[in-house]
Amino acid sequence: MVSKSQIKLITSLEQKKSRTKNRLFIVEGIKGISEILASNYTLDSLYTTKEIFDVPASKAHLINEADLKKISRLKTPQTAIALFEIPEVKSPDLNGLIIALDGVRDPGNLGTIIRLCDWFGVKTLLCSKDTVDSYNPKVVQASMGSITRVQVVYLDLSPVIKNNPGIPVMGTFLEGENLYEAKFPSNGILVLGNEANGISKEVEQLVPKKLTIPQFGDSQNTESLNVAMATAVFLGEFRRRENY
Amino acid sequence: MVSKSQIKLITSLEQKKSRTKNRLFIVEGIKGISEILASNYTLDSLYTTKEIFDVPASKAHLINEADLKKISRLKTPQTAIALFEIPEVKSPDLNGLIIALDGVRDPGNLGTIIRLCDWFGVKTLLCSKDTVDSYNPKVVQASMGSITRVQVVYLDLSPVIKNNPGIPVMGTFLEGENLYEAKFPSNGILVLGNEANGISKEVEQLVPKKLTIPQFGDSQNTESLNVAMATAVFLGEFRRRENY
Q1: Which residues of chain B are under the pLDDT cut of 50?
Q2: Which segments constitute the RNA 2-O ribose methyltransferase substrate binding domain (chains A, B) (predicted)?
Q3: Where do the domains of chain B lie, and which CATH numbers do they carry?
């Protein structure tokens, strides 16, 4: 049984405003929930149509399919929904290689980039305040548990860059030095921009090293690579240079 | 005005069976249609709520929003829908670097991989017959026009590999040689597998060179990279080795 107030709370968590107010976010599906349960995140409450997870009885709610449908954002709800506490944001660790996103809007792209950071050992992901919220349910789903292992911090990018003059800053642009020919340090801040407009003018002024993935096809019409694809190519090359 | 039979035809093209029978596929939205119009693909018919494109009057249908809604698969239809002819499949060009997909099911992944092939100058994409259809509307949308520049051919992968013993075959596996340390030719067939199960046993036996993207994070829990992400990293490294 799910009470009206629980339904109201859970469905409200699709909105960032409610997530911020309640310090909670939603995870749907057994696989996703298992991954977050295995981390140091704190479970708030769990709603399932079967007993699957070993969690304290006070937090577990056995519900029927009809109730699950009421609280799910999916057309085909997937057995389980959990609410977890959003952890406190610590001051970001600026050592090593850091990715900074300037206005990335698509939840799937952000989720994929978080997963790439996790794979390539990038511990800190800086996001401009107009980047999509990392606790958006679509981001959580696309990140496949990586969200618990990568520190995502929302802030104004310009002051971070200005206040840390010792950290090299690089950015990805359509017209820049060839990624495979340019010289650049393998650690520092790598900025990637918005899907349609790239890096903002304000931040661009603070990026001395402009890099680009060369195009190997002979077509003039090819769309630029999407920001998540570009992140994959850049992270591969940064780590190769550092390690091999 | 859209006739009942037109509505029936257009909506049926969401299904592969109908696309195969009618040799037609759908493109929605001004941007996507512009890209295909600029290629050598043949327009069958165009349905728009405004006069936007310069196409023969016999193929253009000016319709109202209500009619657009009837033929669109999108919740918020985007001004224009076009049907294009599916071109004849030629025998694949097996020169240079070729990507082969063994059972990729997600339309977004296939569309992204087609776009990556276009960017990195891969002219031929071989797909096992259980790979999602490249004229699926979601694939067409994700490929952003690249579908007109990359030859996608559906076939059984095993005979192609067996019948071309002179072509080096490499594959991406969770446990293989480190991509950045292994020696391999920069041309040949690179096989990538299904999202959940990887490369099938049958094809695996025919892949002598197993490659893997090393994990740089220290977590044991990280999910493997998704197949489109892996394609991005592999294509970057293959092209770097060949050219720089």
Answers
A1: none
A2: 26-90
A3: 4-85 (3.30.1330.30), 97-243 (3.40.1280.10)
